[in-house]
Design a protein that fits this description.
By secondary structure, this protein is of the alpha/beta class. Helix content is 42%, strand content 16%. It has a seven-stranded mixed β-sheet, sandwiched between helices. Helix 3 crosses helix 4, helix 5 crosses helix 6 and helix 5 runs antiparallel to helix 8. GO terms for molecular function: hydrolase activity.
Length: 266
Amino acid sequence: MNSIQQRNHVTVMGQGEQTIMLAHGFGCDQSMWQYIAPALAEQYRVVLFDYVGAGNSDLSAYQTEKYSTAHGYKQDILEIIDELDLREIHFVGHSVSSMIGMLAAIERPECFNKFVMIGPSPCYLNEPTGYIGGFEQSDISDLLTMMEMNFAGWASYLAPIVTDPTENPEVTKDVEKSFVSTDPQIAREFAEMTFLSDHRGSLASMSIPTLIIQCSDDSIVPIEVGEYLHAHLPSSTLRIMEVKGHYPHISQPQETLKLIQEFLVK
């Protein structure tokens, strides 16, 4: 295994002719796809990876300067695509990976066929202009401070907010465990990159047909964000799931899988 595949702990499943790449979100790693990846591998070649700093990636490859913006992570995705010689792939990104992957698709559209965004947001901050992102600047500052002061406490605080512990307590435990397993400094820098970014200016440049999967009750991404994306992303389809939380691929994997498969075979 070469350095790029080691760096991002690249895993390949399935023997299908068409490749589908699954990209995890903040505080997670490729294990978050465990409930839908095996089913996808029955008909696709599935490529999984961990961002540098997550899961079983090579922590020594982490550079604060490179990964202070989404473009550093975007570059890694393109390097994985080149290393595996992938073309016309389907890409599924959860949360911030939707925007990271979108930047890759804008730069190299020939590498992508169809695109799925799960719980995406181009900008998490509310603005006086009327844009609703879900957070005030003070909310993000408090979140980052909590991560610095009490990382385990932050994880146990956030996990129930982004999941639905009344419906799926095991999902909440899995997410908290994933949060805690991340290096605290890297997790904080990833959070800053995620929550303070603004990709709205790039949306019009996205040419790949895109499915937006929005949860009806998502504490991280309000429904207005899904509607905004649908209005500003060319060739986009919006599907709203009647589910609470930010991780439908874990809490409602069968329904999530069905939406993805229906879109990919259109």
